[in-house]
């Protein structure tokens, strides 16, 4: 299929399920569908070990909905690789790491090859499962490749992170989360979920289950930031009453087709842009700097959170 025919076919689709089925078919390699693999990222993740425990500084890069294998993914990773692993050692993957579903034979073309510049530089990866990852045996191959459990916590400098599985935010997971958050003495508390609690995207909108299940805990345990994907755009949201002082960023512009957004919302939307991008976040015990960077390498949104 040539490029013109592909675009023509893409625009003629009337449902997202058909879009997903057609858009990524040409990127599937001719291997056995779920053949075993033994590739592992270097510096094997030790999920219970914290990074930079003796430092207040933390820095990381993040993006969601990236695993297409499309040129846009390669371009974003190339830009991300301009950031030194000395200052931004961690890469947070906000779900939908592999499209259209996380089959074993798609990990190499849709993640390993595009992310080679970051892998070779020694960054450490912290993924969460998106709905497209969960479609394939509840994320079996993603969990095997990255050596991760369903949900986990880790620390970097003065920040602690909770990586949740929002595909099944059940009572067992929430009990673990609440106990862990209650014990935390971190200066900054950051939660990672694929499905956005709040979003003005025209496709996925707010997720009432996550708002009801997660947001009371964010308020109770004084969380500072919630990062998510799922909606293929960028959105920064201020304080909402049910989540205390927690701010929200939707970062689903990792390379998949972009979503439009609603013009009017009831919550405090502080910035929105339907563009491919990644996040660059750094901080210390006193402040956290949030930056969103587009495909041209320009910072198009920035905010600073400060501790009293």
Q: What is the name of the CATH architecture of the largest domain?
A: 4-Layer Sandwich
Could you give the count of β-strands?
13
Note poorly predicted spans. Answer: 1-40, 42-48
Instruction: State the end-to-end CA separation.
Output: 58 Å
What is Rg? 18 Å
Structure in words:
With 308 residues, the protein is α/β, with parallel strands linked by helices. It folds into two domains: 1-30, no CATH class; 33-306, Purple Acid Phosphatase, chain A, domain 2 (4-Layer Sandwich), CATH 3.60.21. Helices cover 24% and strands 23% of the residues. A seven-stranded mixed sheet has the order 4-5-6-7-9-8-10, covered by helices on one side. The chain starts with a helix and ends with a strand.
Tell me briefly what this model is.
With 308 residues, the chain is α/β, with parallel strands linked by helices.
Q: Which key features would you list for this structure?
A:
alpha/beta, 7-stranded mixed sheet, 308 residues, Purple Acid Phosphatase, chain A, domain 2, 24% helix, 13 strands, 6-stranded mixed sheet
Protein topology:
Elements: H1 3-11, H2 16-23, E1 58-63, H3 71-80, E2 90-93, H4 107-112, H5 116-120, E3 124-127, H6 131-134, H7 140-146, E4 152-156, E5 159-163, H8 171-183, E6 188-192, H9 208-220, E7 225-228, E8 234-237, E9 247-251, E10 269-273, E11 277-283, E12 287-294, E13 299-306
Parallel strand pairs: 1-2, 2-3, 5-6, 6-7, 7-9
Antiparallel strand pairs: 1-11, 4-5, 8-9, 8-10, 11-12, 12-13
């Amino acid at each position: 299929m040539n490029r013109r025919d592909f675009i023509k076919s893409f625009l003629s689709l009337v449902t997202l399920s058909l879009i997903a089925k057609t858009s990524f078919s040409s990127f599937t390699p001719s291997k056995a569908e779920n053949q075993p693999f033994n590739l592992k990222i270097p510096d094997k993740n030790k999920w219970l070990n914290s990074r930079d425990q003796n430092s207040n500084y933390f820095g990381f890069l993040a993006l969601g909905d990236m695993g297409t294998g499309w040129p846009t993914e390669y371009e974003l990773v190339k830009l991300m690789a301009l950031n030194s692993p000395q200052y931004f050692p961690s890469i947070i993957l906000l779900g939908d790491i592999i499209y259209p579903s996380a089959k074993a034979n798609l990990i190499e073309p849709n993640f390993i090859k595009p992310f080679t510049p970051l892998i070779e530089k020694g960054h450490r990866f912290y993924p969460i499962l998106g709905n497209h990852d969960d479609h394939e045996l509840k994320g079996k191959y993603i969990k095997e490749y990255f050596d991760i459990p369903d949900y986990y916590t880790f620390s970097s400098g003065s920040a602690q992170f909770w990586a949740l599985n929002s595909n099944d935010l059940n009572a067992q997971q929430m009990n673990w989360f609440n106990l862990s958050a209650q014990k935390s003495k971190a200066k900054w508390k950051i939660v990672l979920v694929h499905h956005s609690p709040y979003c003005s995207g025209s496709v996925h909108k707010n997720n009432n289950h996550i708002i009801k299940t997660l947001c009371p805990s964010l308020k109770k345990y004084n969380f500072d930031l919630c990062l998510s994907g799922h909606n293929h755009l960028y959105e920064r949201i201020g304080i909402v009453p049910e989540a205390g002082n927690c701010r929200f960023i939707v970062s689903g512009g990792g390379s998949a087709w972009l979503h439009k957004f609603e013009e009017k919302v009831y919550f405090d939307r502080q910035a929105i842009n339907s563009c491919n991008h990644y996040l660059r976040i750094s901080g210390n015990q006193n402040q956290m700097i949030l930056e969103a960077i587009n495909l041209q390498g320009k910072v198009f949104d920035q905010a600073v959170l400060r501790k009293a």
